[in-house]
Design goal:
Elements lengths: L11 H11 L3 H4 L1 H12 L10 E5 L5 H9 L4 E6 L2 H7 L10 E4 L12 E7 L7 H11 E12 L5 H8 L13 H10 L3 E14 L2 H10 L16 H11 L8 E13 L16 H13 L1
Length: about 300
């Protein structure tokens, strides 16, 4: 699947700017993100992996990176995000004795050597990307028997808001999210083995539509679809949206449903991505690479 096609296409610069602006408001509003992150990290308890190098892809404000450093104190933990503002906020999560590294880069172009990472954790980032090139990069930097584990939003996410907007106009107001089975197929195409995926659904409750929109804005999850309307929403259109959304009200609250896909997959033993010659990188070399990036 390509991000460049149809309703899945996003404006990446707009995505980055949205998260830059949300860096100061994110933690206060990201209740759902924190719950999903905790569930994702708890699943690591089912593996006996003892990684020497861990990548937190789409690290945001660094809570996941801090938790990973606490879980794997001897590992090099790298917080990677495309938003400089998010990474500056992540600095506040740095453990005093064992800090994690912070790297600003896109997940499609990882500034890491092939085979240099043992574990990649990515919480709610994949739906902002084209999964094929991201999975290819994850596969490249993971060492043999390395593990990828991630969460992402599925197609039922914000279905109430999408349905309500469809009664107002024909523009794309809510992103279209990739199905679990398509993510699984993308993992296999990229050379991962034994992918396991499952779905959970979480419903948040709000007093009104403005509160739904405020949470989305505060977490950087604004509309970045290429098919979005280019003008501001008029009061008349917003009133129509409110009326359409009211049909979902139950027990005095408006629901906002999130479909969360959880997945993990392994790199086969004694294998390498096509086009690479290096399977692993000494830990000291990885540390030198990260120090060199900070000194630039």
């Amino acid at each position: 699947m390509s991000e460049e096609i149809g309703a899945y296409a996003l404006e990446r610069d707009r995505v980055r700017r949205s998260f830059d602006r949300a860096a100061t408001s994110y933690d206060a509003a990201a209740v759902l993100d924190a719950e999903v992150r905790n569930s994702l990290l708890q699943r690591l308890e089912l593996t006996a992996l003892q990684p020497r190098a861990v990548l937190d892809a789409g690290a945001g404000t660094g809570h996941g990176s801090r938790a990973l450093k606490r879980r794997y104190p001897r590992a090099v933990v790298i917080a990677l995000d495309s938003s400089q503002s998010m990474l500056r906020a992540a600095a506040r999560q740095q453990p005093w004795l064992r800090p994690f590294a912070r790297v600003c880069a896109d997940a499609e172009h990882l500034p890491l050597a092939s085979g240099s990472i043992d574990l990649i954790v990515s919480n709610l980032m994949l739906h902002w990307c084209d999964p094929d090139p991201v999975f290819a990069e994850f596969r490249r930097v993971l060492a043999p028997q390395g593990l990828l584990t991630f969460s992402a939003f599925g197609p039922d996410t914000l279905r109430e808001l999408r349905t309500a907007w469809a009664q107002v106009d024909s523009h794309t107001h809510v992103h279209h999210f990739i199905d679990m089975h398509d993510l699984g197929d993308a993992l296999v195409r990229s050379g991962f083995a034994a992918p396991v995926l499952d779905v959970d659904r979480i419903t948040l409750q709000y007093l009104d539509v403005r509160a739904v929109a405020a949470d989305l804005k505060a977490t950087g999850a604004g509309n970045a679809a290429r098919g979005r309307p280019k003008s501001l929403t008029t009061p008349r259109k917003f009133a129509k949206l409110v009326a359409a959304y009211e049909k979902f009200r139950a027990d005095g609250r408006l629901p906002a449903t999130y479909e969360v896909v959880f997945a993990h997959a392994w790199v086969p033993a004694e294998s390498r991505p096509r086009g690479t010659t290096q399977q692993s990188v000494p830990l000291d070399d990885l540390k030198r690479q990260l120090r060199a990036r900070r000194e630039k």
